[in-house]
Amino acid sequence: MKLGRYAGLILMMVVSVTAAARPSVASIKLAVPSITSPGVVSDPSLVGVWRVVKFCRDDPTGRLYDPYGPNPTGLFVYATTGELSIQMMSTPPVGPFAAGDDRPTDAERRRLFDSYLGYYGTYTVTSDSTVVHHVVGGTIPSYTGTDQARVYRIRGDTLTIGGNRITWPCRVLLRVKSVVPPPNTR
Q: Quick one: which H or E segment has residue 111?
């Protein structure tokens, strides 16, 4: 059975009646279905950790802008198991809140919200130039439970990715190479 787009929002109740010692007692199991299963990784060159070096968006008129400034930071992680994690933020980061980390003012909360983006889920490569992010949760409520198609291109250690043909040239990431030497196998 294929689950619909909003399957993660539906609470399924499965009632099983056991004919054990007390046949009149029903056991109730609650389950929340997952939105998707991890995708098939059909492009191994996408797998890995990618550092954000440039990120833009387009406004309703098609004009491009840098929502996280000229030097954003963050990581896109595509796991071999099909899981995905996207995190990025403005630099410099938002400073400490005046009254402490758990008591931001409305202005401080807004500044933090405007400076950070994150979501997670699974992904599926659907063609040689498209990856679909199956979003489970994150900071953009309208993404939760949806599929976000991204056009991408990999040239060497550079990933260019975007939501459409307008934004993809200005979303640039570099492959993160391990700085930890491989374990000694002797």
A: helix 106-114
How far, in Å, CA of 166 to CA of 124, rounded? 22
Compute the average pLDDT of residues 93-116: 92
Burial of 29 (0-12, 13-18, 19+ CB in 10 A): exposed
Distance from C-alpha of 127 to C-alpha of 164, rounded to nearest angstrom: 15
Q: What is the mean pLDDT of residues 154-159?
A: 95
Sequence ranges of the domains in the chain:
48-175
Nearest-CA neighbor of 85 among 59, 120, 57? 120
Assess if CATH 2.40.128 describes domain 48-175. Answer: yes
Q: Which residue from 58, 93, 97 is spatially nearest to 72, judged by alpha carbons?
A: 93
pLDDT tens readout for residues 25-55: 333 333 333 344 455 567 899 999 999 999 9
Measured between its terminal Cα atoms, the distance across the chain in Å is 48
Separation of alpha carbons 11 and 30, rounded Å: 8
The pLDDT of residue 133: 96
